Fold these 3 entries.
Entry 1:
Amino acid sequence: MRPLTLLASLPLMPLLLTACTAEDRDTAEPAAAVIRAETLVVAPEQIGETYTTTGTLVADDRVEIASRLMGYIRDIKVREGSQVKQGQLLLTIDPTEIEAQRAEAEARVSQARARGAEARADLERYKALFEQKLVAANTYTKAELEHQVAQEELRAALATLDRVKVQIQYADVRSPVDGVVVERRRRAGDLASPGATILTVENPSNIVLETYIREDQLRHVQPGDEVAVSVDAVGLRTTGVITRVVPSGDPATHSYLVKASLHALDGARSGMFARSEFTTGTKWTLLVPDAALVKRADLPGVYIVDRDGIVRFRMVRAGRHLDGRTEIIAGLDGGERIVLDADTPVRTGDRVEERPVPAAESRDLAPR
């Protein structure tokens, strides 16, 4: 029975071989095509080397409003978000205690004036008696001394009264700057003490960047230098000028505070997160147009054209984006010819036929 089974299966072999051959033809890769494309030779270029930090936008004109008097807050006329002008009344402190101090100071002035008048009268009387040689010289000298003491007491009482009058003016607390109330820490009826913050006022038109730099970057950053600033919350991309580099650093982090004024705000506000990019020198690197970059499995790469005009895909490591071009950190050595633009989709193994680049585009793609 075995020979019959083997003979019966032999006629099926040619059919199987025929089917496999047809399947191989169907799944085989298409033949390499000739494509027309623009190419570019990648050459090293010198660009600015940068140092990137994160920071915060703050109001450079920020004033904490406090009372100079001890007393209860009678009325607060503003709240968070209120626009205020310089000299505008913000709040009042109950002046009852300071009014009592003024009354006391005025009473002391009256007493000092009375004692002064009495001392002057005694001095004039003893002077006349001394000239008539009716009293001793030490008696006249004592009258002079008492008159001088009375005058000093009067001057001290008047100075105290003037100081109290000035303090009464502090019962009305006014804004020292134009701005916006951004914080209110006390309410009407709360006790205000000298130096304790009640309100905070900011000038929203004077927003600056505050960031910290490492100690090894301090020598590269100087007041007057430009810095690139980006604020993601409002899509702001602008530049600024470094206004201050605080020379004393944080001993815990070994970082130094840097402030920069911005050339544009475009909706940016105090408290927003920002990124800053400082130029610290120059370096040689490779830049390729963004149009030449392709992605495979989310990995960037370029199509390299070899000496025979055959295309090969090569993965690269991308860096910064600069005016429509991307820095290549790894993957290219310089001198490679890459595909910039093609009439049809590019595949590894295709042969490239050079397509002339228009003169205007040639100028745009030339190394800068």
Note: The mean pLDDT is 83.
Entry 2:
Amino acid sequence: MNEIENKAIDADVGVAFEEFMQAFEAFKDTNDERMGQIERRMTADVVTTDKLSRIDRAMDEQKRVVDELTHRAGRPELGRGGVVSGVAVQHKSAFHGYVRSGEAGALRELEGKALSVGSDTDGGYLVPDETETAINASLRDISPIRAISGVRQVSGTVLKKPYAISGAATGWVGETAVRPETGTPTLAELSFPTMELYAMPSATQSLLDDSAIDIDQWIADEVRTAFAEQEGSAFVTGDGVNKPTGFMTAATVDNASWSWGNIGTVATGVSANFPASDPADVLIDLVYALKSGYRANAHFVMNRSTQSAVRKLKDGAGNYLWQPAHAPGQAPTLMGFAIAESEDMPDVAADENAIAFGDFRRGYLIVDRVGIRVLRDPYSAKPYEMFYTTKRVGGGVQDFDAIKFLKFGV
């Protein structure tokens, strides 16, 4: 992407963000009108309600455009900047030869010299380091849960992590007093196996023969969105069978009875809705259900439909609790905390935990196995060349006290 293209995208981002802010002002005016009608006549005019819904949808679409343009502007470009080692240059050249023509001899030789295992039972070869870095960087931008969670890279297939449920006993003591023996901390061992995630982009031989095509960039562009969508869903609702374990599948318990291994819930007191009176109070209860040490880096997580309902809420002083981002590329906020929008979260319904709140950096761990592999397949879909691209990723809750749910029920 050249300088002229960058300036054009920056200009488009500015225009799209300005239109989004204008839509939000129209949304507030229309919602104020709707609430005034409810106070006066106990019901809102149908025309006003429809208008509010149209503006709400327009805001979502405008936000999508802003996010897309921002991601495009910030997308890392392969082959620009940085010092590249001789081995990296050889690897990249050998990888290009493999992708374009199927010649794998140079790659096998390099892997033999490095004493690395570049293929597994399914075969395939490691992509160049800069291609892997570009894909992983894009995943952080596209995947909402990855962007806010803890991430660990490992070389094996399973990460086992001891976690202290309770620390050693402590206390004050006099200078010459007897020191009582302290208690032993309670440890839990958490296991995070990595599962294989794949994408299979295809290309014609004429595209591969075109020397103007950047093969590394093409592969990165083809697989990043597919990887982000699949892993994003697993991080939320994955059942742990051949995929990561999502935080929404963890056992839950009323927060007043919280214990390790469960995620605490705060109930709205109303089935499938916020309370009719002072609806913001349950969000305050949710925020303060989280210990203070976790709140500094906390995020709300919800889907677009739930966020649409939250946009209409005000505090006791008449201020909207939901506020748009201050600049392109930033997240909107609810009560001062950033919102991560994940379409894999459930809609507001009876007894659904439709809103999550917590420090996901400490609460949820994503485990990436180092290395992304590509296996060239020229046979399965002639005349197309298929590229079976795989990475191994796992995930699960690592601190059950760092995340809380808002339950839309009693």
Note: The first strand starts at residue 125 and ends at 126.
Entry 3:
Amino acid sequence: MTEKRRIGIMGGTFDPIHIGHLVTAEAVRIEYGLEKVLFIPAGNPPHKQDSNVTPAMHRYIMTVMATYSNPHFCVLPIELERLGPSYTIDTVKELICLYGGQTDLYFITGADAIHDLPTWEKIDELIGLCHFVGATRPGCIRKLDDVIKRFGSLGRKRIHRLATPELEISSTDIRERVRKGRSIKYIVPESVESYIQKEGLYI
């Protein structure tokens, strides 16, 4: 029997993408033997309808800049091209059509986001279609275990945790640093820092 391909999905607003995203994606890629990790910027994030999200094209360009040097990373604009809210269930179904049923998909996210899994669109169907890997840090494991229990045997098979380097970085903090004129060097890739400055983002 041919072994299934394993492909990672790194979804997010990426406003902006930062080294925490990259470190997490690479750690999961190695741990789970993923062929590649697809970075998929959210087009119209349903959980951020009331916030001011940077235009999609800027977020897409920054994500391409941040990932181009890793041959195992690539960026797909499928959520940017889709009308309406960007639901993960729609993206996963599209990827299954693209890569075929003999591929295991691993959705990579922070443990904090996995805590909200029960509220995701069509979550019971979604967990049947792909694995979830939560990047954990001390203090998050118990909450993650509670989420796994919520989904029973399917949760134990489909929701995984992986301790990753502790990087207390958030896109919100980066935007605030830019607004205050503080340095973001080494928090984002150099190319992304230059793009933010060139385009006058987050000021």
Note: Residues 5-169 form a domain with the Rossmann fold fold (CATH 3.40.50.620).
